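Dear support,

Our group has been running a series of protein-ligand predictions, and this particular one with zinc ion is the one our PI (initials K.S.) wants archived with full inputs and outputs. We had some confusion internally about which version of the output was final, so please treat the block below as the authoritative record. The input we submitted was:
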Amino acid sequence: MKHWCCLLLLSVVSCFSAKAELPKADLVLEGVVTVAQNHTHFMVPFTVPTGVHRITVDFSYDHRLEEKTVFNIGIHDPAGFRGQSGSNKDHFTIGPADATPSYIPGSIPAGQWNLLISVSNIRPEVTSKYRAEIRFNSPIEDSGFTLEPLEKNLRWYRGDLHMHTGHSDGFCASQNGRHVPCPLFLTAQTATSRGLDFIAISDHNSLAHYAEMRALQPYFDKMLLIPGREMTTFYGHFNAFGITQYVDYRVAEKNGRTVDQVVHDVRALGGIVSINHPESPTGEQCRGCGWAPPTPTDLSKFTAVEVVNSGRLMDKFWDKQLATGIRLTAIGGSDNHDATKGEDVRGALAHPTTVVQAKELSVSGILDGIRAGHVFIDLTASKAKSLDVDASTSHGTAHMGDLLEAKRNDDVRLQVHVAGCSRGQVQTIIDGKPAESMLQVENDDQTLETHWTSDGGRHWIRFIVRDASSNPMLVGNPVYVNY
Ligand SMILES: [Zn+2]
Ligand SMILES: [Zn+2]
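Confirmed final output from the archive:
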């Protein structure tokens, strides 16, 4: 068969050094096509080893524009068709739960796969070289849905880290007013209309939402979609961020796993975990809504805790952990279950907003900001309020989330910068105990100052900005003294 002749020039090269922005390709398939293959389909075989859960392909060929050469591509696994994207996509990825539109997500069986090349057009005088770079288990494709940061600026990014869609128990009214699983795109649409820079969709124990998130991310190129998942157990709920692979969530006293094992797996995949609504009641109304793991759990392996859930401030559990020396970043989440919920309703998307200082708008950027504790929560879902803290001694300065060393009798100057909070008041909380008097905020952009004398021991100092009626507006993360 004539069209197989191109395989004579096929080379499979290992350890090829790829484009600067991509990791090295695991395989490179190359060959040439001439008019002899015009209007034919041919397969380029390659071997997928065991242990592969994701395949990513970057395809290119020459003489495209000037000579109107057109190749359509697709891919077959050992059992058959896994998608084809014509000539409209040069890059695609197929993972266990998500794939580039045109391709079918699912497990990646080891064995012989075939890249399908369909020669739609090639002129008689043209010899076109093609090249397919194949990568296995690409970490960046596993942890999010975009290869590039959406923005490369160090700034405060505003987002919502907890919400549900029709892929778990998110429901909304259909066109005819029926109660239906709420489509995920409405969540993205509503969140972007509220000015958010990022959202983490965290359906209960689900991976099914990632395919839609991957399909939506190119359109929502101002708002980052972070893969989230609410690990929902009988003994507590916690969010995993930044992973798309399955983790066995089945914690059980008698025949299941421990929370520690689940957390270990999430971290091993590069994700972080955050305890959700730990102070909620648990029982028949809501099993596992409060935090009560059946076996001792190492909370130091958690990165964060939800201190504001659906508009409710709950910081007692958090302070209790901080008192034992465990640093957990306070974050918030709307826990939205209906994307069409009006803006000023409890549990509406963006209520509360979690504001993260990050070097860029990417999954790793936002997660690093949370790891560093450079975070405050905005319960008013404003687009403008801000809180920043400088704590300094004669030896150094620390911001929210940072460590400050302060010896006995060192004077610590605490500068609290607040914006958008005029006529509000700033409450200082040291070791979980609020100071007796509040600092008054006079105008829209102000730096307030207070002092504290260190006793050389371990302390945490944090601030809440309240409105004139004492309702919390902004909740900041601590400066950790001598941790
Ligand atoms: Zn929950
Ligand atoms: Zn939830």
